[in-house]
């Protein structure tokens, strides 16, 4: 059994969340908002923030902004409520968006395995 099959097998024991994709995005924002960070100011979590990059405007499912040690950080978040495994292309697109908007980190939270 390869690693991908092991992940798919393990997650098969958990029923799919009975919520819509927009409800899942809201849940992800609540989850991120509940996480305390050792930052200079409380993290600001925003649902569906639009950020302009040189190649267009992106609507992220969530963003987290915080300051630490005098530096400003932007984390972009994509929430994927999928039944099938997340394809590599989605992760690559998220990485491209990270570079476009100058974010420091990108997170993809999914109900499906990768």
Report on the architecture of this protein.
With 114 residues, the chain is α+β, with helices and mostly antiparallel strands. Helices cover 32% and strands 34% of the residues. The chain has three helices and four strands, in the order H-H-E-E-E-H-E. The protein has a four-stranded mixed beta sheet with strand order 1-2-3-4, with helices on both faces. Strand 3 (71-80), helix 3 and strand 4 (105-110) form a beta-alpha-beta unit. The radius of gyration is 15 Å and the shape is globular. The two termini are 15 Å apart. The mean pLDDT is 85.
Quick tags:
114 residues; alpha+beta; four-stranded mixed β-sheet; 4 strands
User: Structural class of the helices, strands and pairings?
Assistant: alpha+beta
Distance between the termini: 15 Å
Biggest sheet, strands in spatial order?
1-2-3-4
Give unreliable regions as ranges: none
**Largest sheet entry:** 4 strands, mixed
How many alpha or pi helices?
A: 3
The chain-level mean pLDDT equals 85
Relative helix content:
25-40%
User: Mind telling me the C-alpha Rg?
Assistant: 15 Å
The dominant shape is: globular
The counted number of beta strands is: 4
Strand content: 25-35%
Order of helices and strands: HHEEEHE
